[in-house]
């Protein structure tokens, strides 16, 4: 008897609570949907458009300013993703708080709906936004950096909510989803500094004067119009022997990563001109295995 | 006024040490147009007759001729190198020679070249004493320039408003006050407000408030425009002088930046680092340069004297600021 009575009471209470909560949530979702009238929708759209225009304006202004900021170019550009996330965050908060005017119960209901939507369809999108936030806060790279993401290498032009856009050396615009940083390694060539290291490899015949070749290559590096030398950014010269040929390698910094290939080309061209005058020969055809030598 | 007292004291100490058998070669490093030749003249008098003075551009193989002099003064050491492959032969020979010689070497060098050479050739290791000639402050500029004139010989005029512009209706200035019992003068701040139309205030928003006497204003302007370089100061001073009047409005501060592409900026940096360079020397460094030289001259950044080029003195600070901002010089 006592057991039956307890069971009945428990069943009634559980049934009432479940019924009440389900009823409240259903009611709140209905309220929420019914509150989405034309003015609310228009206000929401206007807010999002404003947020978009503000981010575009800020991005435009900061990029213009950064190009005049000389060595502080990348520092200024760092602000762009941060401002974007802030503006969209404020806009989103404003929509929920002021336009839709959610109560705390509606917010719970909205979270449930959002959770289900994320679980089913928006999982990837959310991962990309989270990836974008991580990029903004953790800074594995910044706008203006030269990075290798997956198979693509280039200068980061923009870190958006969903994807990072890179300009590759052949001027292709690549959009890499932000979530890629969550489960892939990213190589950053300059880590926020305007200068970056460039490695120049030249292969010479084993019989040529390697000492002279090193001297010429060093002078080609230090006299290049693109070089950047400081105590912390020195020039390094290396020589390596391979069967039948030698590799002379110079590691130096280009003053602005945008001139990476100009620097490499300038050094290579002038070094080879001087090699020829000094009687330094390239290896005979077919001997160099570039993949192995690098 | 002798502005090199500190440097001469240091040189005297080096000479004393040299007599005692301790050799410390001296590098005197300064910006182009600084006037380091004046200091070198004074040093030469200090060490006469034990010294020989040579110009680096005259050292055909990079090393002075053998003499019995124990002190070697080499002027403009930066003319011993060219920034190209094979362009360091002379300076390397000179540095090798120093390291094996027992003579005392006193050299002068362009400060921009010095920093470059230090990174490329580690030149500082052979010059334990480096005297970097400092930029002058406005009060040092005043003392330097007025040392040639009697007290009250010059009349400083300040027409702060350029012709065609309305004067600012709100001004903060200094008024000279004489305290007769003490016989001393001092300046008190004075706020002048003459607002007839609110629109007159608009052009003044954002302008720096000057609160200096006419005389101080001239020297502060000279210091700003010259970057404290005495040679540049002299040129600007001559431009502002209509004896016995000195007109501050003749010192026109150019706030516009330098808009050049990278290759032209590089050539400008070479001209700055060499002080003066011939066209063929530039061509050896940077390839064809005629178009670049035309652009640089057209923009008022360089002057050409026959085949030689140098930075236009009035644009000196603007050029240095531009090249430093772009990290072409440091």
Ordered list of secondary-structure elements with their pairings:
The complex is a heterodimer of chains A (294) and B (330).
Chain A (H helix, E strand, L loop, with lengths): L1 H34 L2 H31 L4 H27 L4 H35 L7 E4 L2 E8 L3 E5 L5 E5 L2 H4 L2 E3 L7 E10 L4 H13 L4 E2 L7 E7 L2 E10 L5 H18 L12 H4 L1
Antiparallel strand pairs in A: 1-2, 1-5, 2-3, 3-4, 6-9, 7-9, 8-9
Helix pairs in contact in A: 1-4, 2-3, 3-4, 6-7
Chain B lengths: L4 H15 L6 E5 L5 H12 L3 E5 L15 E5 L13 H12 L3 E7 H11 L7 E4 L5 H9 L8 E3 L12 E10 L4 E10 L20 H13 L3 H11 E2 L2 E3 L14 H13 L1 E3 H8 L3 H9 L3 E4 L2 E4 L4 H10 L5
Parallel strand pairs in B: 1-4, 1-5, 2-3, 3-4, 6-10
Antiparallel strand pairs in B: 7-8, 9-10, 11-13, 12-13
Helix pairs in contact in B: 1-2, 5-6, 6-7, 8-10, 8-11
| CA(first)-CA(last) distance of chain A | 86 Å
Rg calculated over all Cα atoms of chain A: 30 Å
H-E order of chain A: HHHHEEEEHEEHEEEHH
| Helix proportion of chain A | 55-70%
CATH 4th-level superfamily of the largest domain in chain B: P-loop containing nucleotide triphosphate hydrolases
Radius of gyration of chain B: 24 Å
Strand line-up of the largest beta sheet of chain B: 2-3-4-1-5
The backbone outline of chain A, from C-alpha atoms, is elongated
Count of runs of 4 or more consecutive helical residues of chain A:
8
CATH topology grouping of the largest domain in chain B? Rossmann fold
Quaternary structure annotation: heterodimer
Query: For the residues shown, what is the average pLDDT of chain B?
Result: 86
Number of domains of chain B: 3
Give start-end ranges of low-pLDDT stretches of chain A: 1-11, 13-18
Task: Please state the overall shape of chain B, judged from the principal axes of the Cα atoms.
Answer: globular
**Which strand order spans the largest sheet of chain A, edge to edge or round the barrel?**
4-3-2-1-5
Order of helices and strands of chain B: HEHEEHEHEHEEEHHEEHEHHEEH
